[in-house]
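Review form for a predicted model. The reviewer records the input and the model, then writes brief findings.
Reviewer: anonymous (R2)
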Amino acid sequence: MMRLTKPIGLPVSLVIRTNAWDSRDAGTMAHMPRAERLEYGFLYSEFANNEVHRLDERAAWIEMNSFNGASVLDHQDQIRLQGLIYRARLRDDRIDSNAARFLKRAEAMRLKPTAEPINSLMDPQFCRSILPSDRRSDPI
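Model under review:
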């Protein structure tokens, strides 16, 4: 059995704002060339796909937080926690690969994303191990 060394926490979850596309009307779309409409449609489909990954990653982190305050973790707890960590990592990897793809496509469309000043809220200590130091080499 083992104990967590600190609370798990929850990372900052960045949202891609799509309200301008979602509020488009037929008049606006009529003035946009077909190829441009298709490019924007593809880009916003990618954003919607990214949102699925973002929400599932967040759900995995919320489930991981159910272990906060546990005095000991038995084998089943460790297996469950390892599964949640894998799920969060998988979704995070998909978010990163999707971002690289849609940023490249946006650049080809001469679009430049703007970031909200949320980055200052990110905690560099967040990724420190929550497991005792003798277990840091384990996959969880």
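Findings: The longest helix spans residues 75-108.
Further findings: Residues 136-140 have pLDDT under 50 and may be disordered.
Recommendation: see findings above.
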